[in-house]
Amino acid sequence: MVVKVIGKTDTFTVIFDRIDEKRWNALVPANVAGEYIMDLFAYDDAGNVGYMATAMFTVDTSNLCFHLEIINYQSCISLCNDYICEIKEVLPCRI
């Protein structure tokens, strides 16, 4: 069973701790607001870790809440040089 999820963005990390079957607790840095792409890593009760998903993490300071929406697409990126990257294809994720 997943007991903890760690979400990482380019600028901060959020730790989600399981409270019960449907609820999680998370400490979000006080100075963040807006939308962030977040990679989620799941930990089970034995301490094993695995990549879980990529999500859009939205911090809504006007309502004092956050939203987490799983991104169901992956992309294949080809780096042409140091300054230009090209997205070759976008595919729906396998479920």
Features:
single chain; 95 residues; mainly beta; six-stranded antiparallel β-sheet; two-stranded antiparallel sheet; 8 strands; 0% helix; 63% strand; Ig-like_bact; Ig-like domain-containing protein
Describe the structure.
By secondary structure, the chain is mainly β. It has one domain (2-92). Helices cover 0% and strands 63% of the residues. It has strands at residues 2-8, 13-18, 24-26, 34-44, 49-60, 65-70, 73-79, 85-92. The strands form two sheets. The chain has a six-stranded antiparallel sheet, with no helix packed on it. A two-stranded antiparallel ribbon has the order 7-8. It is globular and about 35 Å long. Residues 75-81 and 84-90 have low confidence and may be disordered.
Helix content: under 10%
Question: How many domains comprise the coordinates?
Answer: 1
Main beta-sheet annotation = 6 strands, antiparallel
DSSP summary, beta strand count: 8
Q: What distance separates the N and C termini?
A: 19 Å
What is the percentage of strand-forming residues?
over 45%
Radius of gyration: 16 Å
Given helix and strand content, the structural type is mainly beta
Overall pLDDT:
77
- Reading the helices and strands in chain order gives EEEEEEEE
Q: Poorly predicted ranges (pLDDT <50, ≥5 residues)?
A: 75-81, 84-90
Strand order of the largest sheet: 3-2-1-4-5-6
Q: Tell me, what's the shape?
A: globular
Distinct helical segment count:
0
Write the layout of secondary structure elements.
Blueprint: E1 2-8, E2 13-18, E3 24-26, E4 34-44, E5 49-60, E6 65-70, E7 73-79, E8 85-92
Antiparallel strand pairs: 1-2, 1-4, 2-3, 4-5, 5-6, 7-8
